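Q: Given only this backbone (231 positions), what sequence would you predict?
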């Protein structure tokens, strides 16, 4: 009887522990696919946050990385011209798929100009999300250079997320919307990664290791490389 009681208590403890853990679906590419190491983006702007229960606070995350930092505007940035980078992909010509190439740096520069964002931050996001691979696909279905989930891509009018021009246009527009919403580099990155609902719910960068690493890595690189025009 005593042993049976201990077994029941252990089972209840395991059940409670499993229920207490946050349920969050993180997408993106990882080392196993030979793509970006630090890529976890949800990029789901119009889908409810995927956290079932708020986890207990973690003292390791009491100091959130680089909160309070701004992104330079397109006109203020010295990076209006990026390093030249050509990517190959398959383009649909109306009847068949054909090999194509595009100057990715020019695409990023143009979409950043339209969004009035520093092209450098978009280039860094693309690097971390897909390692500049237009065909990158995560285990949960995030697609292309900026790792758009199919639902988000559709919401943003992106018909082919593996098309570099469509993907960067949609991803840049989405990130710009998040930056306007939160007004902060780290919070916009966290929202791109874990969803804006989680950022609003936690009142800052969510205490998920993946999101914390994502924000610290991209924000850290951007802040170390950014430069004002004329400086």
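A: Predicted residues:
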């Amino acid at each position: 009887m005593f042993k049976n009681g201990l077994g029941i208590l252990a089972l209840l403890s395991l059940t409670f522990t499993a229920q207490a853990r946050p349920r969050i679906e993180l997408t993106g590419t990882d080392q196993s696919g030979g793509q970006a190491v630090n890529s976890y983006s949800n990029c789901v702007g119009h889908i409810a946050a995927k956290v079932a229960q708020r986890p207990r606070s973690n003292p390791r995350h009491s100091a959130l990385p680089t909160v309070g930092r701004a992104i330079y505007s397109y006109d203020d940035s010295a990076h209006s011209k990026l390093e030249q980078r050509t990517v190959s992909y398959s383009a649909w010509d109306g009847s068949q798929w054909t090999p194509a190439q595009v100057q990715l740096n020019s695409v990023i520069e143009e979409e950043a100009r339209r969004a009035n964002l520093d092209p450098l931050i978009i280039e860094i996001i693309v690097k971390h999300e897909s390692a500049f691979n237009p065909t990158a696909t995560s285990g949960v279905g995030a697609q292309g250079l900026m790792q758009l989930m199919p639902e988000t891509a559709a919401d943003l009018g992106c018909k082919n997320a593996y098309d570099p021009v469509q993907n960067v246009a949609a991803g840049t527009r989405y990130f710009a919307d998040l930056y306007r919403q939160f007004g902060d580099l780290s919070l916009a990155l966290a929202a791109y990664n874990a969803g804006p609902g989680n950022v609003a719910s936690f009142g800052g960068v969510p205490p998920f290791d993946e999101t914390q690493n994502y924000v610290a890595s991209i924000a850290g690189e951007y802040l170390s490389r950014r430069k004002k025009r004329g400086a």
